[in-house]
Structure formats: structure tokens, C-alpha cells
Amino acid sequence: MLKTTSPICSVVVSLLFLGCILFFVPLNVWSQTVPNTNESQTADPSTQSSEKKIINEETNPSLVTSSPVIVKDNYQRENLPDKEVYSDFVVGPGKFEIQLLPGETKTVEIIISNRMGVDKIFSITTEDTSGTKDASQSLVLLGDDHGPYTLKDYISVPIDEFLIHHGERVHVPVTVNLPIDAEPGAHYGSLLVSIVSDPNKPEIRDTAVPTSAIISRIGTLFFITNPGATSSEGKLQKFSTISNHKLYTTGPIAFGAVFANTGDIHLNPYGEIKITNTFGNEVGFIQLEPWFVMPKSLRVREVAWDRQFLVGRYVATASINRGYDNIVDVQSTVFWVLPWKLLLSIFVVLLIVFATFRFLFTRFEFRRKK
Questions:
Q1: Are residues 142 and 158 in the same domain?
Q2: Cα 300 from Cα 332, distance rounded (Å)
Q3: 110 contacts 93 by C-beta, under 8 angstroms
């Protein structure tokens, strides 16, 4: 039967048999790159897990549990001349008064000094400020709220969280950018510097809300004025001794000058206090340096006349310049100083002397010697 088969049929059968063999043989037998790939995937398991961790950290930051990374800044740094530990930090200056036109930008510099004794991470935030009718407070911070003279969105620093070593001070540039559509008047805000954590305890940084991590805040005030139609109005509302005391037994004597700002821009009143005695002679003088009073607010300026030995009636007269148009308000207050302990001692001594002389004159007879 095989002899009757044609050569063509034999070739066809052979090709079919070869195709079946090729179909059932795995493809990786004929591949030269796959084995190398499989070998690299299983050769170093640690490398594989490391790559996976990096991907997770980039795609899901909540999975990161390592210590926080402090962004490196290019702030100017220098060592303090005094390396002593005072358990505090210092921020200066305390206030900037800047005049800007709409759309204008100005950069100033604050200096932060770490005297805590350990390295600390510092954070910078901004808040609006406003005046208050409570004369004992200079102003109030508004937190996340925007004030009537908002400035918080116009203040910025290059990096708002950074490390400062003990005995080191950092110069931080602060940029104030007044928007082009800013209305004439004033804008008030505060740049607040806080200690947020100890670098040796990074777990504090992982908490959502810091509790005892923030130990204190120090603010630098920014008073930005935009020239235009503004109203400067204010006056010395009251001048008296603290708590309106009229009788004292000794010095020092504390005075309070309450200034009311009824305008829409801050004022810087200043002046002097003169004290005269019962005979009208000037016996005391106090210079009052300028202090700021926010718009629509009250603020008291307290000073003390540091004189210990005082006796009699005194008159204190305050002359306060309002800080505009050279207008001066004058008010006076009267007080008495009666050191009763001293007066009682003097009275007792005089009584003893009088009693002694009376005893001598009643018990002895004095005659002129012949």
C-alpha cells in the first residue's frame, strides 16, 4: 500500500507531523531573553521590596512612617556670640511699618535665635490682627479668620518650616506683596514663629494635631499702609493712677493713659508726664515713647514713677500728642502719699520726747547757780 502512495502525499504527511511537534513545544525553549529576565527578578528579593516601598510612598504618603524630612533652606545662618542656655528663643524685630502702593512688593528680614539648649524645628505662620475695646490688650490674633484689614494672604516666606541648632540664628526673608486692587488704607497682620517639635522625637510630627509640641509663639507685627483717603482720629480718653487710687503710703506710683482710636488707620501717640508737689514744684518727669493703637480700638499705656520716699499732695499732668496734626491732649490727676508707718514713728518719738521733758520739769526744780 505504501508503494502506491505518491511522493507528494509523503511530503504533506511529513509537514503535518513537524507542525504538530512545533505546536506542542513551549515557546520559552526558543526565547533567549526570558530566562535572563526571570533570573533578575528572583536574584535579589531585597531590591524588589525596596522598589515597591518607594512606589507606595510616592503614591500613598500616608504609608510613610520614617522620620520627617526637613526641607533644606538657603537661609543665612550664623552662630550666636553667647552659647549659654536660656530655654527660650528670640525673634526680631517686633514690628514693621511699611508704606506700599497697590501692586508693589517689598522684602524685609526677621532674625530667629535658638537659645533652647537643643536643636529645634521652627514653623512660620501668618494671621490677621485687629483692635479691641479691651484697653489692656494691644490687639487680638484672628487665627484662620480674615480681619477687616486683612494681610495674611499677602505675606510669604521661602520655606516655612526649618531646623535651627542651639546657639544659632537664622535670617529669614519675608516678602509683602500688596495686590493691585488693594483699597487705600491699612492692612494688619502678624508673622508667628513657633517651636513645633524636637528633632529627636519625630513621632510628634506624625500626629495630625500638635498638642504639647508647640510650646510658645512669638509674633512680628506688620503694619502696611496704602496711601489714599484715610481717616486719622483719636484722643486721650482718660489719664489717672492705676485703679484710680488717690491715697498711697509709698512709691512707686503707677499711671495709665487710655487712648481711643476712632479712625480707620493705626496711630502712634506719644508724650510726657510731669509731677508737681504741694508747692507747685516739679519733682518728677516721665517720657512716654510712641505706642501703637489699632483702628476702632482702645489701648492703655502704663508707666510708673519710681520714687520711694514721698509725702504730701501731688499732681500728675499728662500731655499726649495724638500722632497726627501735632494735636496734644492734656489731662491731670491728683493723689496723696501718706507714709503712715513713718508718720506714726515720728509721732511716737515726739510723744516720748514731750513726755520726757514733762517728767523732768515736774519732778525736778531748776535753779540758777549763784
A1: yes
A2: 16
A3: yes
* CATH code, 169: 2.60.40.10
Q: Which of 226, 252, 275 is where one domain is finished?
A: 226
Is 259 inside any structural domain?
yes
Q: Hey, what's the cell of 318? A: 499728662
Q: Which residue has the higher pLDDT, 340 or 314?
A: 314
In this structure, what CATH number is given to the domain that contains residue 323?
Answer: 2.60.40.3880
256 three-class SS = strand
Last-in-domain residue among 180, 198, 226: 226
Same domain membership, residue 161 and residue 205:
yes
Q: Cell 483692635 belongs to which residue? A: 131
- Residue 324 three-state SS: coil
Reported as a single tens digit per residue, the pLDDT across 119-167 is: 999 999 999 999 999 988 889 999 999 988 899 999 999 999 999 999 9
To which residue does cell 519675608 refer?
Answer: 174
Q: What is the pLDDT of residues 79-129, one digit of tens each?
A: 999 889 999 999 999 999 999 999 999 999 999 999 999 999 999 999 999
> Which residue stretches of the chain are H helix?
7-24, 34-43, 45-59, 203-206, 340-363
Q: How far apart are CA 65 and CA 72, in angstroms?
A: 20
C-beta of residue 78 within 8 angstroms of C-beta of residue 169: yes
Q: How far is Cα of residue 201 from the mean position of the Cα atoms in its chain?
A: 23
Kindly state the DSSP code that residue 49 receives in the 8-state scheme. Answer: H
Average pLDDT over residues 59-65: 38
Q: Answer yes or no: is 314 within a domain.
A: yes
pLDDT mean across residues, the chain: 79
Q: Is residue 200 located within the same domain as residue 313?
A: no
Instruction: Report if residue 151 sits inside a domain.
Output: yes
| HSE-CB of 153 using CA atoms within 13 angstroms | 8
**Domain extent at residue 308:** 234-341
Q: Is residue 25 in a domain?
A: no
Q: Which runs of E-coded beta strand occur in the chain?
A: 76-79, 88-92, 95-99, 105-115, 120-130, 140-141, 155-156, 161-164, 168-177, 185-197, 217-226, 234-241, 247-248, 253-261, 270-276, 282-288, 297-305, 312-321, 328-337
Q: What ranges make up the beta strands (E) of 93-152?
A: 95-99, 105-115, 120-130, 140-141
**Would you state the cell numbers that stand for residue 295, as one nine-digit string?**
483702628
